[in-house]
Every structure is written in C-alpha cells, then in structure tokens.
Amino acid sequence: MNTQGRPTRLAQDVDPGAYDDTLSGSRGLEQAEPLLFERGSLDVTGVDLPEPKGTQSRLGNVERKGVIGLPGLSEPEAMRHYVRLSRKNYAIDLGLYPLGSCTMKHNPRLNEKMARLPGFADVHPLQPEQTVQGAYKLIEELARWLMVLTGTPAVAMSPKAGAHGELCGMLAIRAALDARGEKNRRRVLVPESAHGTNPATAVQCGFYCDAIPADATGRVDMEAFKAKLGDDVAGIMLTNPNTCGLFERDIREIADLIHEAGGYFYCDGANFNAIVGRVRPGDLGIDAMHINLHKTFSTPHGGGGPGSGPTVFSEALAPFAPLPFVVKTKDGASLKMAENECDVDGTGATPFGRMTAFHGQMGMFTRALTYMMSHGSDGLKQASEDAVLNANYILASLKDVMTPAFEGTCMHEALFDDRFLKDTGVTTLDFAKAMIDEGYHPMTMYFPLVVHGAMLIEPTETESKSGLDRFCDVLRGLTEAAKAGEADRFRAAPVHAPMRRLDETLAARQPVLRWTPPVADAAE
Ligand SMILES: *Cc1c(COP(=O)(O)O)cnc(C)c1O
Question: Which residue numbers delimit the Glycine dehydrogenase C-terminal domain (predicted)?
Fold first, then answer.
C-alpha cells in the first residue's frame, strides 16, 4: 500500500482483512487494481511494431540510450485499468452526494448535449474573432443572466473557480482602495465560520484577516463586528447564506456599516443555490461576489476542475474589473485582452490587471446557460426553494436523534454537531465512515469550524422524497447503533469499501507521486 492508500501489490498480498476470500484478490466482478507499472512489465511490450527498415535516426546524440521505463501494456489493458479505477470512484451520477457547502447537484444531460455542439465544443481561443462571434454572444448572454439574477451592473467572466473569483474580487477591492490613495486599509474582517479560501485569498492579496466571532444563533456577532470597524478596514468577506446554512439576517446593516467605515463588501456566493430568484445580492449592498457555476448552475465539479467562478461587481468596483472582457463592437463583439485596448472604447475601465490567458471555461459557460434557459427564471427560483425544502426535511426528520447545531430552520444545508455521539465512543469521522458501508458518500465533516464535530448535509433540490427518506432512515439507524454501544463497528468502518481507512494527513503532507521499482527488480 502506498501512502495514498493505493495497493502497490495485489490487494490480497497487503491487506488480508479486505480481500482474503478469493485467490485473485478480486471480489465479485470488482477487480483488484494495481498500478499500471505493476500490472505491466518493463521487458514486455503491449504493441508489436516491426523495426522500421532503412531509416536513420535524426536525433543525433540526444537519442534516448536507456530503457524508457514505461510498463508494456496493450491498449485494452491500459484502458481497463482506467475504467476500473473510475468504477471505484463515487459520483453524483451514482447516488446522493450530500457534501455541504459544495452543492454537488445533478448535472442535467441537456447541458452536456449543448456543450458538445461542435460550434461550442471545438472553438479555439486563437481562432480569428469573426469565427467565434457565437461564443462571445453566449458569454454575453450568460453574463446578462448573472447580472440580472444578482442585481449587479458588471461581471468578470474569466475566473476559473470560486477561489479564483475571490481573488478577482479582492484584487478589485485592493485596486479601488489604491485608487483612493488609501493603502493603509489592509484589514479584512472574516467571520470564523468562513470557508478556508476566504482568509487565504485575503492574505494572498496583501491583506490580513481579523476574525469575527459567531453569535449564539450561528450568525455574525453584530456587536463584535461593529467594534472591529475602523479606518484601516479594507472590507468584509461574508458568505450568505453562511456556511452554517443560515441566512445572515443583518446583512443590509452589515453592508451599510462597512460602507460607512470606508470599506467594501465581498460576498462569497458559493451558497447562491439557496437564494437564486428569491434574493438579489446587489440589493443587499454587496460590492463583489463570485458565483460557482459548478455549484449553483449545475456544471460538473471534476477532479478539482474545470470550475468557473464569474465575479459580479457593484457600480463602485465595476471599473476595476479585470481583463480579459468582451465588448460590443460595430460588427459584433471583441475580446479585450490588453490594458492599452481599453480606453479606445471609451469604457472608462481601469482594470486591475489580467485574470487569465484567455477568456474562461467555454464548456462550463455553455452548460450553465443551458441550465438557466431550460429552467427559466421561475424554474431557477423553484430549484432554490426545493433545495431549501429538502435540507429542512432532513433537519426536521433527524433532529430528534441527531443534534442540530442551531435552533430554527436552515437554508440549503442542515448542520448537525456531535453532541448526540457524546459518550458513545463514536466520532464524527467514524460516523461518516460507517455511512460509506451503507452506500452513502459522507456529508461534509468538521466544517464549519465553529461547530464541534460538524456534519453539514446538503441534499440539493433534485433528490426525491423517497430518496431522502431512505437516507434519513439509514442515518437514524446509525445513530441508534452508536447509542447502543456498537462503537467497534464504527471504528472498523468502512469494511465494504475498496479501501479501508487511509492516512489522509500523511498522504497530503508527503504525497508519493512517483513509482519506484521494487528493490529486487532493480537489482536484476
Ligand atoms: C466551494 C466554496 C468556495 C471555493 O470555491 P471553489 O470553486 O472550490 O474554488 C468558497 N467558499 C465557499 C463557501 C465554498 O463552499
């Protein structure tokens, strides 16, 4: 087993507990899967090409002298390896994926169909502008929907993730402060419940963070917030609904106070799924907010990307929005890439810089706009309402056996703490691992940090009532088992997963990214 928890030999050699019941290490039709390098062999080749006759190498002395060191596998062998690995993965297309704060929602297949239209799928950023007018039109149309839904006058479409959108918004705030000659304003107020990307972004932009505590209801403590205002404050980064799944009721007052103090209001819009069509953040006084298209607008999250985090701006910050951006011209639209192109159009823009090499995630734009247009404004509103309803259904169904972190109803995600596990010997981690054996991907654990042993469950709007009932029944059953003293079962879980418990800390701190041949082989 390597430190990422992958078997480096057939599983039966290493982990007798997991696969001790078959000769091959496979189980059922689930194949034990070693690394490609272990499956193949360096002295075997998967392709059988004759030596070309009568040719001479033109590589001179840069020609490779040693063995290439790649495993010799045939195409089907290599393909099967990757397909088998993919089948060990879990996905929203396989079942409920209740990760709170991440909005892992269904990706409608219509989105995929549109994204595959050759005119969208095959565009290249270096094509002549007149051949990509349709793509610009789509970007513009999506931008318009985002501005209407958020009630803001400007949007930067180029950020490629939520965190990248935060960077975009905070750099715009910095540019605006610098333009005012207020370089002393470097303190950013960040609630304790914030997603880790918020303080990371602020620091990356040269600010430093000052944490605002939560009050007993899980929201910004207004007295503490007021006490922190001052003439060195650059702004606040606030998530709404916040990461406890609660609407920040004082948001209008927060916006007014931060503006009076001379700061800007960055809103983390990752939880926009809860309020689309119900609330326009622009009306609440925000100055910048990113929107995760891969959360709210159903474009897929995949292996860290490709995401898309367009960032909307208020009137005050709009001039500082970054390059590149699309502008209308007399014969269509054009992408402005460089600073010296801006004034030409008399836009009055003073971009803080250039955010990305090219425009953005065309495939994500196409999917998000498809989602918006197929739902319409009424459908988007209903999606938010259903997301909130589903989360509250879970909260109400489980609150007699699990412990909700705060009183009252929630928005799109239900937050529980670990008080219900007190004295059972079962931790939040054990509980989550036991869910894997039951066929459920665990919820978000230990986040937000303001709640002890947090379990943050976000079902999203597309789960049916019967699906939610089944999920709640399982969680109820697990809480009963924990309270009945079955701690050993929880500590051993997962027993049915392809891998048991992994040393995630070691894997993150000392990732082994390179395969080295076993010593015996190397000596041969
Ligand atoms: C997901 C998330 C982010 C970061 O978005 P990415 O697209 O993952 O970079 C920021 N804040 C909150 C509250 C989030 O849930």
Answer: 383-484
**Residue 341 near residue 113 (C-beta atoms within 8 A):** no
**Residues 402, 464 within the same domain:** yes
State which ligand 1 atom lies nearest to the alpha carbon of 292.
7
d(CA 354, CA 325): 9
Give the span between the Cα atoms of 199 and 268, in whole angstroms.
Answer: 12
**Does some domain include residue 62?**
no
Which of 197, 237, 294 most suits a substitution to test ligand 1, by most atoms within 8 Å of the C-beta?
Answer: 197
Range of the structural domain that residue 352 is part of: 131-360
User: Residues 285, 433: one domain?
Assistant: no
pLDDT at 343 (0 to 100): 58
Alpha carbon 270 to chain centroid distance?
9
Q: Is 190 in the pocket of ligand 1 (CB under 6 A)?
A: no
In a domain, 102, yes or no: yes
Q: Using a 6 Å cutoff on CB, does residue 197 contact ligand 1?
A: yes
- Please name which of 371, 366, 299 lies closest in space to residue 123, comparing C-alpha atoms: 366
**Ligand 1 atom nearest residue 103's Cα:** 15
Ligand 1 centroid to Cα of residue 218, in Å, is 19
Answer whether 242 contacts ligand 1 (Cβ < 6 A): no
CB of 243 sitting under 6 A from ligand 1: yes
Instruction: Return the pLDDT at 524.
Output: 46
- Assess whether 298 and 155 both reside in one domain: yes
Does residue 57 lie in a domain region? no
342 and 440 belong to one structural domain: no
Whether the Cβ atoms of residue 283 and residue 150 lie closer than 8 Å to each other: no
Per-residue confidence (pLDDT) for residue 200, from 0 to 100: 97
**Domain presence at residue 56:** no
Task: Please tell me whether the overall predicted TM-score, pTM, comes out greater than 0.85 for this model.
Answer: yes
Query: Could you tell me the mean pLDDT of each successive run of 10 residues in the chain, 524 residues long?
Result: 45 46 80 84 75 86 83 89 89 93 94 94 91 93 97 96 96 97 97 95 98 95 97 97 96 98 98 97 98 95 76 97 87 79 66 89 95 97 98 98 97 98 97 97 95 97 97 98 97 90 91 80 48
State the Cα–Cα distance between residues 453 and 390, nearest whole angstrom. 23
In a shared domain, residues 304 and 408: no
| Number of domains forming the structure of the chain | 2
